[in-house]
Amino acid sequence: MATEEDSCPHGDVDRSAAMTDDVTTSSRVERILDTHREALQDGQLPMTVYNDEEIFETELHRIFGQCWMFIGHETEVPEPGDYAKRYIGKDPFIFIRGEDGQIRVLFDSCTHHGSQLCKAEQGNSSHFRCPYHGWTFKNTGDLAGIPLRDQAFEGLDPDEWGLHEAPRVENYKGLVFASIADEGPSLEEYLGDFKWYLDVHLDIAKGGMEVIGEPHRWRADSDWKSGSDNFSADSYHTGVAHRSVFEVGFGDEDISGTAGQETQRHVTHADSGSTSLRLLDPEEEIFFGYPEEYITDENLSDEQYEVAAACGAATGTIFPNLSFIHLAATNDPDKPLDGFFSLRQWQPVAPGEMEAWSWVLVPAEASEEYKQRAYDVALGTFSPSGNFEQDDFAVWDGIAEAAGTVFADKQDVQMNYQMGMPGIGKAEIDEDWDGPGTAWDDNLEEGTCRTFHGNWQKAMNGEEVGMRYPRDHI
Amino acid sequence: MTNQMTHQSELERHYECVSFYNREAELLDEKELEHWLELLTEDIRYDMPLRVTRDRGSDRSEFSEEGFNYREDRSTLEARVERFQSEFAWSEDPPTRTRHFVTNVRVADVDGDELSVKNNLLLFMAQGEEADGTTVSAERHDVLRRVDGELKLAERDIRLDHTVLPMKNISVFF
């Protein structure tokens, strides 16, 4: 367990040097950020940050303009020319595999006068032609055609006018991320200790995981942080917010319902993320509900494999807005529980307004029948019509509404995130835990959420993301 | 005479379909979901594929073959209805006020006891104090089957006019 400050790879980084302060903030934003820092030390959170114009603009620059952002899964663009439209914050990009086989993240704007090139959400194309003046670009981003070039642009070097692209693009086990900042830690450094937990999900199935279908996309009057916060993870809400699904039988209360059972764990301060692991009796070998023939121990350590074997449900968030759920559940109370994996991204649209994106993933070597079954389970539980997810979105918009009030601003209203802090609740650090980060012996604690908000605070202050205990003891 | 019979029978069919949709819309809008289930056949297939913007020249349908917002059978629909009746189903607290406007009813094909029927749906939804409400537009491709003399819904393919859903969740039926 890495709890020593010395073990932090970014511990000695000069934070002012790491800062890319490309947006000036008002004294009001600085005051809110100061309040946020003090409040979080006491397990409180200024409500205003969930719906505030200036905070939102600052987030777009300092978080979405700096961090590693999830773009998509490589199985979404398997063939040369395959592409999908994606967004970094609110900025449009084309996630594309070029004819050279390389994946790129191209800015969706003609280098001539700036028009949008990509109209479709997904497709396959060798070229993109701008509808304005007709400049044409290959799927590698190279400028390939200029109408009336000899007269109009004689002397122009087309090599200098290929499409702009995200300066840094990296692939971690099929998950493609990009950063629009020139400088920063590598993706692996950024993910840090959380890689150990991500690996449990990405490597437990033979052949890894693959995406089925296109992502769900839907709009909500909720702040993007509500999704990140909930999945980061909030284990306390399941017994109330999701009570109806256990009454009807879409899930097993022992697996994904009642919090506070002694085998369940929260892992906080794992650099970029935190997670909830609903662990059961390891003898049961549940593996998130997957049939055993799809499971492999080849790519995991013994400790990681043991976590997967005992885990019936896990959620987590990688800062800032990529979350996941790995769950054994059912869309039909008359059918057994089966497993699926879902990646979800909470995209900022406006203060207090987000667009949710959700991808369903299944073991790549599962039978076609199982893949369809897993998709149905995901659809019936975590999707816009999901019997679980409907009720999460039903409660999050109330937070954004309250956060946007004059009252919350004037009265500096704080929300309570104190569960699991010294003197509040009973959660203790599990010193015997084998994985990195800080594990707690009880999921009735909110260090997971505080890990997310701690990273938010670092990013908003221009510092590098990465929560470590005890250095960032909140 | 034959032409007149055919004509009459088409009129009757049309009237019968419109009456079915009016009845169905009333049950849905009145939240009589248990009674709505009685309008469905035992082998009901109830789908809402994702819609995806494709290249204008693409030969692929905009309606996904792999991604869905609904892909239901009788058992999963019954389970959803049962959940909505729980006092802990927060997405329907307060209940969404819906109005199903069904128009442009077209009987596309008649095959024995089954009618293939296309129709347009404008679904208005408002919840709580929401002033504007949300409107969703779709075409429905249905199969209505005559069972014991009455029409029942055997298949529904809800073909949305949206790719990004304009609402926080889907907690109603289309």
From TrEMBL, chain A:
Q: Which residue numbers delimit the Rieske domain?
A: 68-147
Q: Which InterPro entries match?
A: Rieske_2Fe-2S (IPR017941), Rieske_2Fe-2S_sf (IPR036922), Ring_hydroxy_dOase_asu_C_dom (IPR015879), Rng_hydr_dOase-A (IPR001663)
- One Pfam annotation reads Rieske
Chain segments carrying region Disordered: 1-21
Q: Which GO terms describe its molecular function?
A: 2 iron, 2 sulfur cluster binding; iron ion binding; oxidoreductase activity
Specify the domain of life of the species encoding this protein: Archaea
UniProt entry keywords in alphabetical sequence: 2Fe-2S, Iron, Iron-sulfur, Metal-binding, Oxidoreductase
Homology family: Belongs to the bacterial ring-hydroxylating dioxygenase alpha subunit family.
Q: What is this protein called?
A: Rieske 2Fe-2S domain-containing protein
